[in-house]
Write a structure and sequence with these properties.
single chain, mainly beta, 9-stranded mixed sheet, two-stranded antiparallel sheet, about 30% strand
């Protein structure tokens, strides 16, 4: 982990209730240790990426809303309570469902499916864990979830040059970032409150874990004011 911050789990904390965000936090200036991971010493070459970031489980990028609803029923049962809402700023439509143990032993999470402004098709899937999704959620569990997922992603076969991990960002740590061969991306963010300990080191107390799968992070299908309109 980066030397500029580490995670500490105190016995009592104040937990913020966080909801799904359709765009990731902006990263602060990262230390050198947060740069993309170099190739292993002695490696003859970096293997081609093997992972495909094409959505989440049965819900695939490009699906329309009805197809995603069917995918939700397939993945989480026909009785899953799906909530629909609109992001007024980006003018995207969002379906969300609360799911118990989407990560085995990880507690209840909210899974959110974002549909593009123009295409009306699936462009992003986000998962979040916090006190807002599970009242029994603890900082220990959030840290365990983040470590389990980061380990999984590091071994999944993302483009080597796209991988970054343990990068300090606003209100937390970027636990993992990586892209597949088509530049579809995965982003794992551990959010929390930051204080300094007796050694003047930054200490992060986790309050939420956010995971994003995005079809096109560089040019997302969201509403933007036309150039020159103001």
């Amino acid at each position: 982990m980066s030397s500029s911050a580490f995670v500490k789990i105190p016995s009592a904390i104040v937990v913020c209730c966080l909801t799904f965000m359709s765009a990731p936090l902006q990263a602060q200036k990262a230390p050198a240790s947060a740069a993309p991971i170099p190739a292993p010493a002695g490696a003859r070459g970096v293997l081609a990426p093997t992972v495909e970031v094409n959505g989440f489980r049965s819900a695939k990028f490009g699906m329309n809303e009805n197809d995603v609803k069917n995918a939700i029923a397939k993945d989480f049962g026909k009785g899953a309570a799906v909530k629909a809402e609109t992001n007024p700023n980006e003018q995207t439509h969002v379906l969300s469902v609360k799911v118990p143990d989407v990560l085995p032993g990880g507690g209840a999470a909210e899974v959110s499916y974002v549909f593009g402004y123009k295409s009306k098709n699936l462009i992003q899937v986000g998962l979040s864990w916090s006190k807002a999704t599970d009242e029994k959620m603890t900082p220990e569990q959030l840290f365990t979830n983040s470590t389990m997922l980061r380990t999984h992603f590091l071994a999944a076969g993302y483009k080597h040059e796209s991988i970054a991990t343990n990068m300090p960002i606003a209100n937390g740590l970027l636990m993992f970032r990586g892209s597949d061969a088509k530049d579809r991306s995965t982003l794992l963010i551990l959010q929390g409150t930051t204080t300094k300990d007796e050694k003047d080191q930054r200490v992060l107390t986790p309050t939420a874990l956010m995971l994003f799968y995005t079809a096109d992070a560089k040019s997302p299908d969201v509403f933007r004011l036309p150039p020159g309109s103001f």
